[in-house]
Design brief:
Elements: E1 4-5, H1 6-12, H2 19-27, E2 32-33, E3 36-37, E4 43-44, E5 49-54, E6 57-63, H3 73-77, E7 80-82, H4 84-103, H5 113-124
Antiparallel strand pairs: 1-4, 2-3, 2-5, 5-6, 6-7
Amino acid sequence: MTGVRIDKWLWAARFFKTRALAKKAIEGGKVHYNGTRVKTSKTVETGALIKVPQGWDLWEVEVLAVSDQRRGAPEARELYRETPESQARRERETESRRLANQAMSAPPVRPDKKQRREIQRFQRQRPEE
């Protein structure tokens, strides 16, 4: 197989659950193929660099194989290799998010009726100009 549409490849590589979600991300300009935005009909070839958003992370992968069939996760991981820079960046950002979430503490209890009214009153106040 020489080439496959990028939406099919992203779906087969398990970056997106459905081809419709892959198509939506591509049309929204989120997916970059060799550094440029692409259309859904773009043909994927081996050796290409693709940037794919996944939740909070941005994956930068090199295409190793081309497939238009969705297989199991271990086989899907054989279709691409993540660049070392991308992997280091994702790990660094994950660690910083974990530390930021750890620093924020949840309130010990829910506010009662009086406290809720005070919060709402505070939120309605406008800064004096």
